[in-house]
Amino acid sequence: PLGARRLLTGPVGPGSTFTVLAAAAEAARAGRSALIICPTKPAADHARNELARRTGRCDPRTVVTFHALGKVRRLHQGASDGFPDERFSIEERCIAEADHVIAECPQDEEDLIRLYDAEPARITIIPCGFDPGELWPIGKPLARATLGLDPEERVIVQVGRMVPRKGVETVVRGLALLRRDHGVTARLLVV
Question: Considering only CA atoms, which of 107, 67, 110 is closest in space to residue 87?
Answer without folding.
Answer: 67
